[in-house]
């Protein structure tokens, strides 16, 4: 099977109209996809995307075109015979690399291509991605990972050891997964743009649906935030779990002061308290707010940054993003790093399509890497799933495993037409 | 004066033909500029650029177009009445920010615009940029800086203190600068693609021109590298200064081992020993190779990263890049951070146009921030200066101060036509 075409599309959903997704740093996002279809000589397609929040999505589309020559004409079996080399080929072009390296637009676009390749591979083998990964041997899994710049903390042999330790339990973990899925938390109730009473109404609705873990956006005025935090704690009671998300707005000392000022409401974590590049700042915050944990990752741009956050004790919950990282291969690297430091994988989702992606990564982690653990919480937002051919299934606050072959990335054809920017009907109608 | 047009151009020089600029990570760069001209209602233009190494330059051009609406129609006096807010406006658009934040293509493009704005301002005031900055009061200088996410290490007041301490000596520093410029080092002799005898020939030629500081690219086979290092040391004698540059190719333990294996040749620094994102790795290397220093910065993407490198003792020489950082405002922030930790500013140059830019920043540092110091070495490569309207003047291994108003960014009109990609004559002829 050979790749004969690489076709990116600019897909945008006008979510800023309702302030869905609003937070302290991102007041009005239009959730968007740089969507890629890989065509092959056998007719099977690979679908993948990267996620952005509106303006600038055209740059990721352009970057996919700039990278396309690295994927075009690839033989799929050959590409997956040496998966780390294939990954390095896509993210390591010596001239394009200057634009990152391994960060920003060029890495986001690389993720779309890498993810589409894995979707194609999973379809070719007739398995959902989580199952494909969970069936690989420890040797095959480490062959997917580029260990460059990781080896002071995790090298191939150490990663192999971790995977071999988990191997005997794989069958039992998979039965558990099929039986009851993996736990999720909801962000749908607590967007910053929602008035307090809307938050209360949504938390109550969530409790009725069986949710126990709720995330609230914070980062405006402290008093205002305290009131919102109190409202959620009041509604969910002492047994509910409350997470907070500041979306990068604080200075390091302000973050410490702020979190300690709401510690009486016992939040599980504070997410993105400051700049996502600030490893040392996060470590200082982690020290200053224990036992509240620091969660971060959605803007942590590559495995070298995760290595540092994890080793520094600056990340108690690893919120990897399936698009910010360079696709599946780098996500595997980060899952192994997190296992090395016994930090749970709690992937970033929401947006559009992110839940569809990350469920596969978290399920692979459950089956083949870190095993059963209740602190592996996958974010869930009840939004925009209806546009996907194989949408997530979340029941009783748990993600249930996808059965369909692929990486769940494919959009409905009608949605692709309607939300194409700027010519789709959803945008023409504005 | 109001900005009435923002016009980017894709300019590329086919430098890969001769392996000029070759190193361990970048074997065949085509030095390129995303070149921007700001037009105004008064006719004065602002010129600026960001630097890339070839493929992908089109993405920075596209990103300038995506950012243009943030600059178009700006009143120049108003923009410079609140320079930090203007900077934040350009790098902080809430949707475009997702593509970084403050890194990669979107930040490189922001730098082109910010630098063009400063070029325009300097022309409007009739001063070269170094002089414009050196004439600003401490208060005006800190007003240029966005202190967000820096304040655990350097806030506005602490920065003001540093600048005020340097203020009484400004006049004397400026006289020194006019008299004898600031010291430089040369990279022209030691590209990795050059055979050993070519390196020897070039070092000899450099010595005859008055150079005493030479940088050599390393990072291939240790034995091969040792031979090249020995050659340079042999030629420059015990009083010459030798720097090494590995361009990111090593793992942390390999870097330590390698540098210690050439320590007998007494290099001043090892540059980019590993991933440019790896603050903790650089700190570990710095500990393991003292008294050899670690130099890095050309791929360090924003002030938050510099804050960490400097505070961690992971950067003994601060090689800021005028384009990787978000232009002049963020360069001022980094110069202040370096001053805070008493680390010399040794900017990244070479490429095309980088020397023209960074001389202004280093001269500003000399006059108004860190004062006279012989360890402030500005990189120099004798290459492509002939395309600029106001090229650098380097004599006796020292940069002499530009006299012409602006930021020395303007290309000759004929060069702009000839190297326009892909339609210019230099590319059509291939």
TrEMBL record, chains A, B:
<dbReference type="InterPro" id="IPR036849">
    <property type="entry name" value="Enolase-like_C_sf"/>
</dbReference>
<dbReference type="GO" id="GO:0016052">
    <property type="term" value="P:carbohydrate catabolic process"/>
</dbReference>
<dbReference type="InterPro" id="IPR013341">
    <property type="entry name" value="Mandelate_racemase_N_dom"/>
</dbReference>
<keyword id="KW-0479">Metal-binding</keyword>
<dbReference type="Pfam" id="PF13378">
    <property type="entry name" value="MR_MLE_C"/>
</dbReference>
<protein>
    <recommendedName>
        <fullName>L-fuconate dehydratase</fullName>
        <ecNumber>4.2.1.68</ecNumber>
    </recommendedName>
</protein>
<dbReference type="InterPro" id="IPR029017">
    <property type="entry name" value="Enolase-like_N"/>
</dbReference>
<dbReference type="InterPro" id="IPR018110">
    <property type="entry name" value="Mandel_Rmase/mucon_lact_enz_CS"/>
</dbReference>
<keyword id="KW-0456">Lyase</keyword>
<dbReference type="InterPro" id="IPR029065">
    <property type="entry name" value="Enolase_C-like"/>
</dbReference>
<dbReference type="Pfam" id="PF02746">
    <property type="entry name" value="MR_MLE_N"/>
</dbReference>
<feature type="domain" description="Mandelate racemase/muconate lactonizing enzyme C-terminal">
    <location>
        <begin position="196"/>
        <end position="292"/>
    </location>
</feature>
<dbReference type="GO" id="GO:0009063">
    <property type="term" value="P:amino acid catabolic process"/>
</dbReference>
<dbReference type="InterPro" id="IPR034610">
    <property type="entry name" value="L-fuconate_dehydratase"/>
</dbReference>
<dbReference type="InterPro" id="IPR013342">
    <property type="entry name" value="Mandelate_racemase_C"/>
</dbReference>
<dbReference type="GO" id="GO:0050023">
    <property type="term" value="F:L-fuconate dehydratase activity"/>
</dbReference>
<keyword id="KW-0460">Magnesium</keyword>
<dbReference type="InterPro" id="IPR046945">
    <property type="entry name" value="RHMD-like"/>
</dbReference>
<dbReference type="GO" id="GO:0000287">
    <property type="term" value="F:magnesium ion binding"/>
</dbReference>
